[in-house]
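Hey, can you fold this one?
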Amino acid sequence: MFSRIALFLLTNLAVLFLAGIVMSLLGVNPANMSGLLVMAAIFGFGGSLISLLMSKFMAKRTTGAQVITEPRTPSERWLLETVRRQAQAAGIGMPEVAIYDGPEINAFATGANRNNALVAVSTGLLQNMSQDEAEAVLGHEVSHVANGDMVTMALLQGVLNTFVIVLARMVGGVIDTYLSGNREDGRRGLAYFAIVMVLELVFGLFATMIAMWFSRRREFRADAGGAQLAGRQKMISALERLSLNHGQSTLPAQVQAFGISGGIGQGLRRLFLSHPPLTERIAALRAANATVM
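Sure. Predicted structure:
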């Protein structure tokens, strides 16, 4: 928890420092920035924090995931027992465990609190993975919860959103002033709002690249956590199984970044992937195993 708060504070300080440099270079009066910063923070963090708080509800609603309250089959009983054991080992509260109808091998974790999260698996995973492989996937998802990845991603997205809003309006104001010939009334015309919209799209693309870079890094950490909870070879086998059965994810966009499956793309598209290619994840686990040995 402390590391996430430290990351959040350091990132905000970096944004404020960079904003100060940009304002100085562009000749923007800092006194005029207080209202903009407040507005940008409200809109920048508002959406990401609301999404985080509603993440469990929305995940259940969009996937049709059914939470296991009383296990009806040996498979459901095994799921609950495995997640309970891994949650205890990871030092978190028992997550809700759910199954959703999906043909692909996939699973996801979400929730605003590491002690009140949701771990869900697809019917395709239960049908096409061995228990050892499924155990590793569950360990991967429990590690996401233990690492606080959902909270960290929401905070990071809030910071990036705020930065995009502020920078687009700062740069847009300078461009509009230059194009309008420094008009004395100081009012902004339609051109200013058009410029800001374009700049928000451009800066938003760069912000997405940063968020996806972080998302890819957290997948490596979750793989390492899954290897620790279930066993390294089980985690490698699970990823190999995913690579053999990999197809287009049917998860809704809201939770796709938190699924275990993903990572197909080349060239510039790779910069927008939430998951590294499975081959890289397998190689990282093998390399870590070789280092330990």
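Residues 1-5 have pLDDT under 50 and may be disordered. Let me know if you want another pass with a different chain boundary.
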